[in-house]
Amino acid sequence: MDDTVRIRRLTPADAAAFQALRLAGLQREPSAFGSSFEEECNETLDAVAQRLAPSPDNAVFGAFDAAGALLGVVGLGRERMLKLRHKGILWGMVVTPEARRRGLGRALMQAAITAAREVPGLLQLNLCVNAQNTAALQLYQSLGFVAFGREPAAMLVDGVLHEEVLMALRW
Q: Which positions fall inside the N-acetyltransferase domain (predicted)?
C-alpha cells in the first residue's frame, strides 16, 4: 500500500461516502454480500450515520486516498448474546475496482483485527466469504483465518445458489 492511502475509523460524517461505496459494491458484486442493493438503496443518510456512530462493539474502517476519496471499507461487529460475546464478526469488505491490488484490503483487515484484539473479552473473529472468491479467501488465509465450515446454498442471487466458506481467527 502506498503512503498516500490512510486507514481510519469512519464517523457519522462519512455516511454519504460510505453509503455510495457500499451501494456500488452491492450492485457490482451482489454475490459477495448478504445484504442487497434493493434492501439498502432507500436507507436514509441518518440511518447510515447511526451505523457509523462510535461504539465499543462496532466499527467501520475506511481507506482514503490523498484527496480524501473513500476507496474501501470493512466492518467489525460483536455478537450481542452473553455466551457469544467473545466473538467478533467482520462484514462488508469492499474495495473499489480501481484501487484493488494495492494492499488496501490487507490494510483494512489489519486495522479491523488490531481493533478487535483491543476489545476486552473478544477472543475470535469470524467472517463468511463466497467460496468462488479466491482472492478474498487467499487474503483471509494469509492473515491467519482458518476455514471451519462451508454453507451450501448460503445465498440465492438472481436465481443462482452460492456457497460460503466460514472462517475464524483466534488469539
A: 5-171
Domain that includes residue 107, residue range:
6-125
pTM: 0.95
Any domain includes 145: no
Q: How many other C-beta atoms are found inside a 10 Å radius of the C-beta of residue 139?
A: 17
Q: For residue 114, tell me if it sits in a domain.
A: yes
Cβ(61)–Cβ(76) below 8 Å: yes
CB atoms within 10 A of CB 21: 21
CATH of residue 101: 3.40.630.30
DSSP one-letter code for 132: T
Number of domains in the chain: 1
Sign of CA dihedral 137, 2, 61, 122: positive
User: Do 62 and 72 touch, CB atoms closer than 8 A?
Assistant: yes
> What does each of the 171 residues of the chain score in pLDDT, given as a tens digit?
778 899 999 999 999 999 999 999 999 999 999 999 999 999 999 999 999 998 999 999 999 999 999 999 999 999 999 999 999 999 999 999 999 999 999 999 999 999 999 999 999 999 999 999 999 999 999 999 999 999 999 999 999 999 999 999 999
Q: Which residues pair with 73 in a beta bridge?
A: 62, 94
Residue position matching grid coordinates 460475546: 85
